[in-house]
């Protein structure tokens, strides 16, 4: 083997924007196209928003205007405005910002001064304008390079503050699109965590008077067992209840206004403190799982100079930066011990409801224990020669592997579809689970069906979600069925299973639908795969007269050589999004319950037979 020279010429230093553009994952996590709530384009929006929120937390500016249209984002706050002499430096020079003065931004979300610079570097167009005392300065950039700057006199009635506008670079975020539901959720979170702040998203107003209590009321689907317990203290706020429709635990956790989707030291302390306080109040050694089962809760704390496990700040790693010099664990534990205990003593009807729920959970756990033991043994034996699961090498719980967020489990119907995916998948990050026919309609059944039904039990074991999402093995759970009546039915049956027993999997946007092309249009030189009638028409116009047109009716019709184009870098995944106003039980009852008159009328009004669809597609 020839040896290569290693000299000074091999050493290269990247400037700030080159480094961000070369290694964007270090700054914003994964890139994505916008179909997942944690894709990079939402992190860019959040990084700009965080600066405006920090101004509000400092008591400056009580409204923020956000506009998102055609891939362009603009955010205007009414805080103090960036000092005019530092506008360019603040958005383009590393280690420059006001947050290094810990007194000025004691409990801000970001302290490393990287966020807005990353947005600038990763945008094809980036514009910032600062308004201060009748003066304004604007700077415009492209890919982090300064294009022009100008200082002007502001309009007479122009309020102080900062305006930022950017368009993500589509050479980095390929074919990106913003999903309104994700931005809506983000803006609501900002409203819930900042009472007194009014936000506007494309003209729609967002405001909360009751903080985390409002958050739970908006996000809980169905009935709750008792009124939400809402506790507030200096630098801490909690909201707690139990749901009648949940089998698992559901938490919303925040640090300095940042939604920590992966939890961290604060959430672990909260879960531990609730169990300890409940045990002491009732003077019974309840099992932790019985106390927490069906709990829906939110916790928000403010700490000085928090340490997160990544730049995207989805998990709190620090434990010794809580208020008053306490550890996060003792700060949260002491607050819950005092305030929750006081609340239960003052509200005996709530205390009685909680005890009844814990005892019901205990009874159900004991009833299930025998079935669970047999099911686990069966799953363990099956896993050694499980023909249903073709696993991958990397999993979501492989914390140190950067590919963990790409991990995907395709749930397929039949051998033909799973065979095509299996032959072309990335064996490092993509796994396949094969269904045999249609799964059981589990609507209205108890959780023991998860263990009694072998297919459900093996799917639960493959995902590793029996005890919750903490050890989920795949970031994306992708339902991959044909786009025909049977395929749609299987899709609905799987969604029923997840919504009935593991709703958090759907609520946390892990469940997605694989979209594959409906048509292949080709001539002798070029092939186009089309996902809609519009794309088909465009392809016919592009490829010239009389191209060959093939309609794919099922995944099994797509050859492995072609399938590689649809599950690789250009994969199209549609997220399963829940309407926050709808009850899961009402949804399931409508679609999967008894054939009601309402549903019959809907079907009759919207009925289209296969022949009609065929004729429409070939026009």
Short description:
The chain has 21 helices and 22 strands.
Structural class: alpha+beta
Distance from N terminus to C terminus (CA atoms, Å) equals 61 Å
| CATH hierarchy: architecture of the largest domain | 3-Layer(aba) Sandwich
- The main sheet orders its strands as 5-4-3-6-2-1-7-8
**Weakly predicted, low-confidence segments:** 99-105, 608-619
Predict the CATH topology of the largest domain.
Answer: Rossmann fold
CATH class of the largest domain: Alpha Beta
What's the β-strand tally? 22
Query: What is the overall number of helices?
Result: 21
The overall pLDDT, averaged over residues, is: 82
Approximately how much helix is present in the residues?
25-40%
Please outline the major beta sheet: 8 strands, mixed
